[in-house]
Amino acid sequence: MSSYSASLQPGKKSVGGGIGRLVVRVFLILQALIVVYPLLWNVLASLKTNAEVMESPWSLPSTLNWDNYVNAFTTAKIGDYMVNSVLVVAMSMAVLLFTAIPTAYVLGRMRFRGRSFLTNFYMAGLFIGGVYVIVPLFIMMNDMSMLDNRFWLSAVYATNSLPFSVFLLTGFMKSIPHDFEEAAAIDGCGYFGTLFRVIMPMARPGIITLIVFSFFDFWNEYVLAMTFITDDAKKTIPIGLSNLMQIQQYATDWGSLFAGLVIVLIPTILVYALLQKKLTQGMMLGGVKG
């Protein structure tokens, strides 16, 4: 009886629990290696010559061939494509935040006739992807001379992401106590003052989560950009990378191709590394409050 009671004492770890934690850690380590190894191999391949890539793809480079990155920027015009992507992502983010934050504020904080209908209307947009309406959208934009325009491409991106953004931010808006709004009203704040001075700072984790998700979505989008942008000088990085893959495949310049892939990965890695804590915090708060 005493031995049985001792085994149930708090602070003593069971053998089964230790084995379970070990199995989970081994599984997570293997999963991390599966994810990291292709990225590491890509970086090493970008520093090799074409002969080394073909003859010994799994070995380390004999010398660091930085000319591949120079060729990717100059010959393949990766730098120009990146500038276009940065402009499109920045404009898309501005349009999305400008429309999604006030919409989520109205739907999440105010009571008015038709609110449920508008909420369901936005939620229905979650099931309609941009690819499903690409043909009528192309015809409409062609008739209105909106093709080959980076701003209108940004507007399409923002509109396509608006339902999810409103859905995400509405949960954060609803979780904020109404006492803060009442205090702001006593201080003389109107709707916009309350939104910018009270609601948005308190919903910052949700806004940062939306920014990270939207950045990845806009930066990697290919189908809409390929459809609405035909001018090579205005193409974004996914299209430029696809063209680079086709060109370098026939030119057998594999080093420049892998260098281009590494250049494309750098912004996404930096954004995630800088905002990883805020992203985790926002997802946890959204899971608890939503």
UniProtKB/TrEMBL annotation:
Annotated CDD domains: TM_PBP2
Membrane topology according to the record: Multi-pass membrane protein
Transmembrane segments: 22-40, 86-108, 120-139, 151-173, 254-275
Main location: membrane
Source superkingdom: Bacteria
GO cellular component assignments: plasma membrane
Keyword Cell membrane appears in the UniProt entry: yes
Entry's localization field: Cell membrane
Pfam families reported in the protein's UniProt record: BPD_transp_1
InterPro entries given in the database record: MetI-like (IPR000515), MetI-like_sf (IPR035906)
GO biological process: transmembrane transport
Protein name as catalogued: Carbohydrate ABC transporter permease
Source organism per UniProt: Cohnella cholangitidis
